[in-house]
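Morning!

This is the sequence you dropped in the shared folder:
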Amino acid sequence: MLNLLDKIISTGNIKKIIWIGKSLGTSMIRTCLKMKRIDEDSPLILITPNSEWSSFIPELLEVKNPLFLCGSRGDQLFNVNNLEDIYKKVNLSLCEFEYGDHSIEVGNTIKNIENIKRVMLMMEDFVTKLGIKQDI
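The structure's back. Tokens below.
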């Protein structure tokens, strides 16, 4: 994966990378941050982080990257003991649900669709406020 990333970046055709991870994908973002593969101005979008979330939170507080975070208090992987520490993060945009599982589903199809819509609209707002245009 990292070799492919290096190859893509080396083409020079990339203007800005928005790092998006859902669940296990957030671990890849964490790995890239640790390896200094992510520029400090590159936006991070983390959707329902996985089982290493508790140890990832302190690391995210140390980086300058703008962060969009989505999770549910009903998700045992998201609702960790140190969750409230992430609220201190500068440049945090938070989409948090009171109820829902790791997929932000609540057992009602219409409500599930509304939840997904909310996430998508908030992500759009996040990148728009960062000045990221569609042509990037």
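Headline: The CA atoms of residues 46 and 69 lie 5 Å apart.

More detail when I'm at my desk.
O.
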